[in-house]
Amino acid sequence: MKKLAIVFVLSLISAVAAFAQVDRSQLPASGPAPEIQIKDAETFSLPNGLKVFVVNNNKLPRVSFTLVLERDPILEGDKAGLTGFVGDMMMGGTTNRTKDQLDEEIDFIGASIGASSTSMFASSLKKHQDKTLELMADILYNPVFPQEELDKLKKQTLTGLAQSKDNPNAISGRLSRAVLYGPNHPYGETESEATINNIEVADVKAYYQTYFKPNIAYLAIVGDMTKAEAEKVVNQYFGKWQKGEVPTFTYPMPERAAKQAVALVDRSSSVQSVINVTQPVEMKVGDEDYITSRLLNQILGGGSASRLFMNLREDKGYTYGAYSSIGADKLVATISASASVRTEVTDSAVYEFIYEIRNLVENGVTQEELDKAKAELSGSFGRSLEQPSTVANFALNIERFNLPKDYYATYLQKLNSYTVEDINATAKRLIEPDKFIITTVGNGSEIKEKLAQFGEVIEYDNMGQPAKKLEADASMTAEQVIDNYLNAIGGKEKVLAIQTAKISMDANVMGTALSIAFVYDSQGGRYGQKTSVAGNVMQKTALSDGSGSMEVQGQVIPMNEAQLAEAKLNSYLFPEAVYEKNGYTLTLDGLKDVDGTPAYKVIIAAPSGAKLTNYYAQDSGLKIKYENPASGDTFYSDYQEKEGVLLPMTWTIKSPMIPVPLEAKVTSMELNVPVSDEDIK
């Protein structure tokens, strides 16, 4: 017993001594990365060239089929937007089923079937797989491409395109693609109203007949299906698919800018600037620098612990988030760093982007940063393996990119083998800090001069086209622009003679009818506005006796000082006639392109500091646009004479609060009529 006690005490002393020697301030060293045991997809091919990958997973009684066409990117030219219609047109009905019948049969079995210009997808319960494949094959072989479906798609696309012209992120995407690739590259061309309207059913049919061929296709099957069963059903439903010649294309590699430059879209209603610092890069999955570029990007801007995020958000507070990406593509990819920042810190944010990129290239990464990046990417890779579709994607990538068979099985080993020196060498090979294009969408009058420190500032329009060079009258002033407007609509005397107005307008937003009513009382300093849906007032604004309020769905909110100042600016039917009397200051900010019309931009500031921006057509002198960062932009058209004064009968409103542009037409207009307090309330 005594011997046992001595042994126990000695063991305890040894354990305490060993514990004391552990440095708890240091994380334990990572063990060697294992080779991942990824179940290989089973493969086979049909005589027509279709390559099939099967990933058996019987945990759930479901099965999915993903068909991918491996074609070269296409330059669509004067029919840009064509490929965006192909999938929906294929789903528009077949020679055996109308669109409604097709949708009904898909819904009845709870399946999901879709198509695009380069793929098809179908998924259902195992017991419905034959019906699902029957429907999928019918869509693949027998699409009818109905004209009415194309008409609907074109209308929807044109509506979305109109909306995107006022979406800063959409504008930024178009601008970046345009300056990186140019209009003669498939990644640089942009669809427009003209190219969308050029597309005909025959174009969609020609695309389908040219590219939907099994010899450029891969079919991935994931779910409750064995290889033997897959061979049977694939031969049954896809065996008769006829192969054919498919054209191939090559494009020159876009060159990086000779020197750093700034591409700017002036969107003066913006209160934020959308910044993208970008340059093209040759990078494919499996390239020498592919995995090291993932690690490099994770450190630069891959998450909330990255350098960009910690600098621009956590340290400077310029943005909610700043991120980067290093793409991979068979043709060409991009290196980009982006954020949306407050207007007043735009130049400071660009400086920090450039600093972090240059610092990364010149001074490299630290071991601590690399270890964290490896842990983050390893975790992401591991989580992806929980999805059976990941194995199918791996098999497709190995085939499409000619990767080693064990590429993904040894992925973590490769990932963890890279050193700080490897990452730093990749940064120097891939990134040229002096050859970035800095694209910016924001208030040009506030940021243009400040951005000039980073390179030549070249202006573009909201479609990514070089801004038109407009020639303004050198002697033109803001005051003269206003005088020209007043004369164009009938003269200041006739304008001032209109003291009150009641205007009603009707509009439609995505099938919902709206009515908007305005009441103006210039002499009494009163103003009212109501927006109603189906007769129910949803929102109204009232200004009277020097105070104002806003009411939204029954909740009344008194205006603060800034809101009241802005409401007073908007309370006149013809505010231009009283700018001087009310002490407003006018600033001419040049001649701008407003949807193809040269217009003088005039910034109007009240003594309180509240501002609004109007655009007046250079040729007619008429006001064609009003800008407001909060409520959006209003475009004026269809001027008609009322009591000797020209007034716009159509207002097109583009607001961040509505999903599509709202076109409101005047249904009634009463001038110089009595206005009561009830009209204002």
From TrEMBL:
SUPFAM superfamilies in alphabetical order: LuxS/MPP-like metallohydrolase
Cross-referenced InterPro entries: Metalloenz_LuxS/M16, MPP/UQCRC_Complex, Pept_M16_N, Peptidase_M16_C
UniProtKB keywords: Signal
Signal peptide: 1-20
Domain Peptidase M16 C-terminal residues, every copy: 199-377
Domain (Peptidase M16 N-terminal) ranges: 78-173
Native source species: Algoriphagus taiwanensis
Name of this protein: Insulinase family protein
Pfam family, one: Peptidase_M16_C
Highest taxon listed in the record's lineage: Bacteria
